[in-house]
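hey can u run this one w/ HDD bound, need the structure tokens asap thx
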Amino acid sequence: MKAYTIGYAITLVFGVLSSGVTAQCPFHKRMTEGGGQDAKLEQLEQYSVNDAGTQETTMFGTKINNTDSLKAGLRGPTLMEDFMMREKVMHFDHERIPERVVHARGVGAHGYFETYEDWSDLTAAKFLRTPGTKTPVFVRFSTVLGSKGSADTVRDVRGFATRFYTEEGLWDLVGNIIAPFFVQDAIKFPDLIHAGKPQPNTDVPQAGTAHETAYDFFASEPATIHTVLWALSGRGIPRSFRQVEGFGVHTFRLVNEEGKSVFAKFIWKPLQGLSNLVWDEAQKIAGKDSDFHRNDLYDAINRGDYPEYEFGVQIVQEEDEDKFDFDLLDPTKLIPESLVPFKPLGKMTLNRNVENFFSETEQVTFHLGHVVRGIGFTNDPLLQGRLFSYLDTQINRMGGVNYMQLPINRPINPVHNSQRDGQMQFNIFKGKVAYSPNGLQADTPSMVDAKDGGYIEYPEMVEGRKERGKSAKFFDHYSQAQLFWNSLTPPEQQQLVDGARFEIGKSKSLDVRKRMIEILNHVDNNLAVRVASGVGVEEPANKYKNSNQTSEGLSIDQYPKAKNIRTRTVAILTAPGTDTSDAKKMYDYLDKEGAYVQYVGLALGDQDGLNITQTYTTTASVLFDAAYVPGGKKAIETLMDNVSQFPYEEPLSFVLDTFRHGKPLAATGAGVELLKAARVKVPSSSKSYAEDKGVLVSSSSTSLEEPFKKALIQQRFWSRMPLDKNAK
Ligand code: HDD
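ok here u go:
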């Protein structure tokens, strides 16, 4: 009720505003002055409710004590009359709304977008036309297949949906972290999702494609292979939402004031670097911390380490539409950056966590059709179908048509039209006119033509027969899959092969496995042979031609590294007897550089002056980016004691997993013995961090500081990972 009351009050304020009394409302004043980075935040503030220090009331405002229900005698039946119990339980019964049919699990954050330059030559969109303009944004990252309570680190595509609250209305860029999409036409989307989601007879497996129906579909629909390869690579298991790219996937249009249009692919590039987990690690994290990605984002933002993503476009001129081997309208294709470079337009910073998950992250209703002037659509058949689906699905989730009035969904500029009534109508519209044209209200709200600031419809020429089918270039399913495979480094290819063996190997049907190997063979024979050997299928004999073409922008490993070690998580492994001076020096150094450092010990609390915040039971190597083992003979003996102290060898597993997963690992003094006991290949003499593949040893922590920092910037040492004997 409290929220409703406030919403109602705001509504009245807006009502007053629309009748012309603008000066009394600071919010409206700011709007008329033109948005600004905090405009959305301040709007949301007005709907916020703080219950701290208040007194309990019913939803209708009566003060109450509802500790016990009302009974006829203390051991007697509860009375129907108990309005407090009825209301509270009734509300509880209705707390859930349907989860999203796809992308159910997500995490959201607020921030702002700042445009670098005046891009008027490209677009009429106002927020892209003045350098330094700051536009509030809300981003929701999500996994696709799992339900709302599924684990974060499953292998899956992930959503990267961004809402820009511009002065001219909302623009929702509803993209993914993977550049191509599985299917070419929206009519195939329900099939894709039915095949990927848990099987209808058993409702398993949760949150992943490692099952028969998914691969039966992929094997039957070769258009999926390009995206399947992305998902099987490191792209399907990102280290963090702070280290993912985002892609609008479709080709869109930008239209400028003169009505000139260009084709545009939208891309986000993280400035924190790009990084992924290894599959063994991702699976272990799903058990140790199923909220790993959510926690990572919340923590970084809470600590002021705001993730930044550069936003840009690949531009194709109207007259070049047909110059590529692929069709710009085919969403299973990307535009290789070696053909059309990425042009940065601005930067997004995520600087605030949500106050309330349900009100903001759950109730946000993204829709591709939320566009501002200067941004438009193409005839991509997947895009066209999405324009229907997102509106439709929100009505199912929100229970009515007025969901755009929810605080998270309201634009920051005023809304006026003749749409009325419907469930949960919050506005009180004055007057008797709710139609257009009208004479009684001077024909207002008045229609706005493109030349006066209204939406610009690009007058694309369209002609053709009505028919079902696809254009010829849509049938090339393998060229770009091959380009992707060819562009990965050998360790990245190995990760893809391992991922494919796991996923395809989960299919009990030999026929599905065989057909899948056949599809892989069309991409590359070496890929198919290597996967076949792991899934009980004969090596394919046919060798199809590999173009050997590669492109920039596809390998994670070759993506520019972060410039510092801010937010890298480092575990310092200790036990009573640890050389505290060494441990502290390393802690202080890394902490000063912005890393998130924690001492892991036998018990929480003080240990010889070190504040132990994790134990070998509460955490594990997979939850850190790196580990350091300081000296101290007694401590190392304790950590190696696999009889009385650590029967499950937790410290040894910690070290071994850090090594196996390619992460920086450092040790000093007796700490080196723990590495050796964990079967880590320890370099014989001190070399550079790169030559030692991120395993660094020394007699003192000070000499390790700089090399460890460089290793942390490098983040992973994939060269440590073993390759198949027949890897090329
Ligand atoms: Fe979709 C949600 C991304 C194709 C139908 N989609 C949804 C979300 C993202 C994407 C990020 C979550 C939004 C949020 O955080 O609330 N979807 C994509 C991308 C696609 C794509 C990048 C291909 C380029 N989607 C697609 C098709 C259809 C849908 C072809 C239907 C024909 N998508 C939906 C939906 C969802 C959705 C059913 C579920 C919840 C929602 O919309 O709000 O409408």
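Residues 100-103, 106, 140, 142, 159, 161, 174-176, 181, 186, 189, 249-250, 331, 364, 366, 382, 385-386, 389-390, 393 surround HDD (CB under 6 Å). anyway lmk if its weird
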